[in-house]
Amino acid sequence: MIDALRSWARKHTDEGRYSPVGITFHWVMAFLVLFQLGWGFYIGFMGVGGDKLAAYQVHSAVGLPILVLAVGRLGWRLLIPGPHNDADEQGVQTQIAYAIHYLFYLAFFGLPLTGWAMWSSVAEPGPLYLAGLVPWPQLPFDQLDIATRWAIMDVAEDVHHLLAWLLVLIVPLHVGAALKHHFWDRHDVLRGMIPEIPDSEDPRGGHRHKPREPRARPGSAGG
Ligand code: HEM
Ligand code: HEM
Q1: CATH of region 2-82+92-193
Q2: What is the residue with the minimal CA distance to atom 34 of ligand 1?
Q3: Do 128 and 64 meet the contact criterion of CB atoms below 8 Å apart?
């Protein structure tokens, strides 16, 4: 089974592309995480009241699927290595890109887990629902004394804020690097992360991207 999955994915990764599963994980989670960031900070500006509680419930309902997806995505990445692309040859820049990928995974787990801990530590926890539909249990903090629960709340809140601000820092770096590789260096890295678009002019079978012309470098032979 695993070998079959690997050989299916290799058809994509051998061409410098993420598999359709990897691409789906990437864009679904990118959308959810960006929504969560915007919504989370927006809630911070809301006045206290029923609307704010409802907004937190939306925040939790959208955030918990990120935890489920993170487990699936990490499992997938451990089983199926990503492709080797042009951007993997760039020494320290490549190391920074990999470090940012690890930090994303830290946030994928850390934010929902600390959010869950915050809900579970307050005295009268409201119900939690995965995607607003499937009931989600509280963490077993109800036997703890109230001081310990508030201490958990404080730590979880600090870590949650820290990770949210970490994302505010690294998302623009990540997106900026992807765009720079694509438009400036003319690397294949962004193409490897977007769904394949049928290309009727392509002689290799009509469903692959055309290779890109390398960017002309000043002083290079042949322009
Ligand atoms: C990747 C997923 C998530 C992201 C990006 C995220 C982001 C944020 C942001 C930006 C804030 C506002 C921080 C501030 O005001 O400085 C926030 C607050 C909060 N989030 Fe999340 N969140 C995520 C997942 C969750 C989940 C799954 C839950 C609950 C199960 C949750 C519960 C909370 C709570 C209770 C607060 C209020 C904290 C406070 O200021 O007292 N979050 N989140
Ligand atoms: C919206 C604009 C975005 C663009 C254009 C973009 C582009 C890319 C590209 C081209 C790669 C492949 C990098 C490589 O193989 O070296 C990649 C990987 C990755 N991106 Fe993004 N990305 C975007 C948003 C995001 C966001 C918002 C997140 C986090 C929530 C994210 C998380 C990741 C992760 C974790 C990887 C590593 C590959 C994996 O484990 O699946 N990206 N991205």
Answers
A1: 1.20.950.20
A2: 115
A3: yes
The residue contributing the CA closest to ligand 1 atom 38 is: 157
Asked if residue 170 lies in contact with residue 104, where contact means CB atoms within 8 angstroms, the answer is yes
Report CA(90)–ligand 2 centroid distance (Å).
Answer: 17
Say if residues 198 and 188 touch (Cβ distance below 8 Å). no
Q: Where are the domains of the chain?
A: 2-82+92-193
Does the pLDDT of residue 21 top 90, yes or no?
yes
Provide the 8-state DSSP code for 129.
E
Contact 61, 68 (CB under 8 A): no
Instruction: Find all residues with CB under 8 Å of 74, minimum gap 6, and list them.
Output: 105, 108
Q: Using CA of residue 30, residue 32, residue 33, residue 34, what is the dihedral sign?
A: positive
Pocket test for ligand 2, best of 104, 179, 180 (most atoms within 8 A of CB): 104
Residue nearest to atom 7 of ligand 2 (CA): 178
pLDDT per residue over 34-92, tens digit each? 999 999 999 999 988 888 989 999 999 999 999 999 999 999 999 998 898 877 777 88
Question: Would the CB of 30 count as within 6 Å of ligand 2?
Answer: yes
Alpha helices in the chain (DSSP H): 2-13, 20-44, 50-79, 92-121, 146-179
Nearest atom in ligand 2 to 105's CA: 35
